[in-house]
């Protein structure tokens, strides 16, 4: 059940996802540089998926103000250091991520001097179609000593990741510009791919 975007961007690399063979774009796997490192501390404002609110239509899973837990449904190895992660949520809801936006994820990495949970926070750009219902896909390069990507690498089906968003970078509306030129490098490949 690959998303439209997943199919559209499909290239040579064949991966096994959910027991079925699927294609994905391994070329986008090269992700480096220009990355802001964000850390924050434990927060009570954690939302759970069964609390997804319907505020008008369509129903969305993301909440820009609260950390929402998303369950890992499946993973697929795309290259020696890049993995595809599919997270699931209410099948009647969309993720709620617009074109040219990203999400932030967080994972606990111990405690600070006051005993509060310390988190590593990193942004990611889902590669699934924004209109997909019930799931989103992340393509993540795993760094040998990468705090968050190593955390992703240890996840198993059924584990949860806390996500907040969308983090809007540009509010795009159809035909807002006559011509659009895109130049991408490093992490920019993800945003570029999802905007195509
Ligand atoms: C808008 C945006 C969207 C993004 N989307 C994606 C995406 O879709 N997919 C994706 O894969 N990435 C994406 N990124 C990059 C992502 O946010 C992270 O920066 C990336 O996953 C690395 O984070 P990390 O915590 O694993 O690595 P970090 O812990 O931040 O480490 C970064 C680098 O430093 C090295 N390093 C860390 N600690 C040490 C040490 N003690 N000694 C030597 N070297 C060390 C690591 O090996 C790695 O090479 C995006 C970034 C942005 C800004």
Structure notes:
The protein has 196 residues and is mainly beta. It contains three helices and ten strands; from the N terminus they run αβββββββββαβα. Strand 1 (14-17) and strand 2 form a beta hairpin. The longest helix is centred in the last third of the chain and has 8 residues, at 147-154. It binds flavin-adenine dinucleotide. Flavin-adenine dinucleotide is lined by residues 31, 35, 37, 102, 120, 122-125, 138-141, 143-149, 187, 190.
Helix-strand layout with pairing:
Elements: H1 4-8, E1 14-17, E2 20-23, E3 38-41, E4 46-47, E5 67-79, E6 82-88, E7 101-111, E8 117-124, E9 135-141, H2 147-154, E10 160-168, H3 188-195
Parallel strand pairs: 4-5
Antiparallel strand pairs: 1-2, 3-8, 5-6, 5-10, 6-9, 7-8, 7-10
The protein binds flavin-adenine dinucleotide (FAD).
Keywords: FAD, Flavoprotein, Mitochondrion, NAD, Oxidoreductase
InterPro entries: CBR-like, Cbr1-like_FAD-bd_dom, FAD-bd_FR_type, Riboflavin_synthase-like_b-brl
EC number: 1.6.2.2
- What is the multimeric organization of the chains shown? single chain
| Residue share in helix | 10-25%
> What is the name of the CATH class?
Mainly Beta
User: What is the CA-CA span between the terminal residues?
Assistant: 20 Å
The coarse overall form would be: globular
The total count of helices amounts to 3
Percent strand equals 35-45%
Order of helices and strands: HEEEEEEEEEHEH
InterPro entries: CBR-like, Cbr1-like_FAD-bd_dom, FAD-bd_FR_type, Riboflavin_synthase-like_b-brl
Cofactor: FAD
Main location: mitochondrion
Family: Belongs to the flavoprotein pyridine nucleotide cytochrome reductase family.
